[in-house]
Design brief:
Blueprint lengths: L1 E6 L8 H16 L2 E5 L5 H12 L4 E6 H4 L10 E5 L2 H10 L3 E4 L4 H15 L7 E4 L6 H12 L11 E4 L2 H8 L1
Parallel strand pairs: 1-2, 1-5, 2-3, 3-4, 5-6, 6-7
Length: 177
């Protein structure tokens, strides 16, 4: 069983397509025999992807830092549940327990997670695939920012080779298969 790390929001966002994509991704991961690795929340897109994976017979691996344990609604019925000391350890545990990363819509935390794994790839610390799920064009400004970073000389064009962009869940799942 391969494990796929999903970074996503603890909110649903304004567009119902985000929630639908999270549910489709959870179902697709489970049906494809993948274990979901994620931030252990039971709210927003995090909760949706996990509940969908579970409803379709999938394994779930949630990781949450102790300081968020009481602040967030934690999903406690996961296959594996890990509490870390801090956010850095959370990201490390999630990363170490996956073979690929998927970025669904999310906020600052999702951006932090994305840029950390992207930086690690740029530095040659890993070669795990990083997938951006650009639902309803949500991540188009991020993709444009990566182009700007390259175009203005702050990164080599190869930085874009570390990221694969998908406009829908089906095309992502086809690549993960």
């Amino acid at each position: 069983m391969s494990s796929i790390c999903v970074f996503c929001g603890s909110r649903d966002g304004a567009d119902p397509k985000f929630s639908a994509a999270a549910e489709d991704l959870g179902k697709g991961l489970a049906k494809g025999g993948h274990r979901l690795v994620y931030g252990a929340g039971d709210v927003g897109l995090m909760g949706r992807v996990a509940r969908s994976a579970q409803a379709n017979g999938g394994e779930t691996f949630g990781v949450i830092p102790v300081h968020l344990f009481e602040r967030e609604v934690v999903k406690r019925d996961l296959s594996t549940f890990v509490v870390t000391e801090n956010m850095h350890e959370r990201k490390k545990v999630m990363f170490m327990n996956c073979v690929a990363i998927v970025l669904l819509p999310g906020g600052a935390g999702s951006l932090d997670e994305f840029f950390e794994v992207l930086t690690w790839a740029q530095l040659g610390l890993h070669a795990k695939p990083i997938h951006i799920l650009n639902i309803a064009g949500y991540w188009s400004p991020l993709i444009a920012l990566l182009d700007t970073v390259v175009d203005t000389g702050f990164a080599d064009a190869s930085i874009k080779d570390f990221v694969q962009t998908h406009e829908d869940v089906e095309s992502l799942l086809a690549v993960l298969a």
